[in-house]
Specification:
TIM Barrel; 43% helix; two-stranded antiparallel sheet; globular; EC 4.1.1.23
Length: 309
């Protein structure tokens, strides 16, 4: 899957992932269904799914991937998780790579169950059934190797990928991640682990399907990690609403524009509320915002001697 993601990034000249952190409140009133016979959670979830489908149709030709943030579906209960599942199916059918942002982990046995849910198969009798069946999942590596191994096994078996939290984009990420142990920060040690965990998952472009999450808000830290780990593929959240800049993304990428994919959720989902896109329908505004992000990144790449071949 890592090779396909890289090929789609290059083909679309777009190292961008649109984040489907779809809150009911984001949906414009004139898009809401007039079908009021459902309970409130069903109503919210069914509108979220319709919104996602319209948005996916608007961006599928200009980005390689979407990231579906589970929190915004879990908050609507079972109906929300159905919308999560159906959104994954819809996005895959639209030709997109799907990252399930679930940040899962636990002790080995339980991590195996999580991995079956999001990447692998659930065994019932003789049948092995794909459940959410995303292409990538985000995971938390802080329980250590036994909590990650089941995900890595499913990456190998089903050609999937994971992104392990290394240096997160949030303000307080340094409280723990920047602490030093024997001369290295915790995030640097985590990056070492990620390389080790993914050593048998390296694809034809030299990047492993076991990648890292590094926030766009921490370019200096990204530079350090990149120097130590040239084969680490990075999911980069934090561009847009969190203030990460295109220039700050540069350390993650090699001169061919490879090495990462940049997520943007709220600034695309709610672009129609931005005066820059005033009067546009939400899907048209989302497309324009995505194209502007692409221009911003490609112009910055150009200034830094980075270009897709
Ligand atoms: O370090 C991290 C890890 C994950 N995220 C997630 O990415 C998106 C960012 O949303 P924006 O609206 O573009 O800020 C969201 O799903 C986060 O949970 C992150 O931001 N930082």
């Amino acid at each position: 899957m890592i090779d396909r993601l890289i090929e789609d990034i290059v083909r679309k000249q777009s190292p961008i992932c649109v984040g489907l952190d779809t809150k009911f409140d984001y949906i414009p009133a004139d898009f809401l269904s007039r079908e009021y016979s459902m309970n409130p959670l069903q109503y919210a979830a069914s509108n979220i799914f319709q919104y996602n489908c319209t948005l996916i149709d608007a961006i599928a030709d200009i980005v390689p991937a979407v990231k579906v943030q589970a929190a915004y579906y879990e908050m609507y209960g079972c109906e929300g998780m159905k919308a999560f599942h159906d959104t994954i199916v819809y996005a895959k059918n639209a030709g997109l790579v799907v990252i399930a942002d679930v940040k899962r982990n636990d002790i080995g046995a339980t991590a195996t169950a999580y991995s079956s849910a999001y990447l692998g198969r659930t065994k019932i009798g003789d049948e092995e059934i794909p459940v959410f069946d995303a292409d990538f999942a985000t995971v938390n590596g802080y329980l250590g190797t036994d909590g990650i191994a089941p995900f890595v096994e499913d990456c190998k078996k089903y050609k999937k990928g994971i992104f392990v939290l290394v240096k997160t984009s949030n303000k307080s990420s340094g409280e723990l991640q920047d602490l030093k142990i024997e001369g290295k920060t915790v995030y640097e040690r985590m990056a070492d682990f990620v390389e080790q965990w993914g050593s048998e998952c390296v694809g034809k472009y030299g990047f492993s399907a076991v990648g890292a999450v590094i926030g766009a808000t921490y370019p200096e830290q990204a530079e350090k990690i990149r120097e130590a780990h040239p084969g680490l593929f990075v999911l980069i959240p934090g561009y847009g609403a969190q203030g990460g800049s295109a220039q700050g993304l540069v350390p993650n990428f090699d001169k061919k524009g490879l090495g990462g994919i940049v997520n943007n959720s709220r600034a695309i989902l709610t672009a129609y509320q931005n005066e820059k896109y005033a009067g546009m329908q939400f899907d048209i505004a989302a497309r324009e915002a995505t194209l502007n992000m692409q221009r911003d990144i490609l112009d910055t790449f150009d200034k830094n001697g980075i270009a897709y071949e």
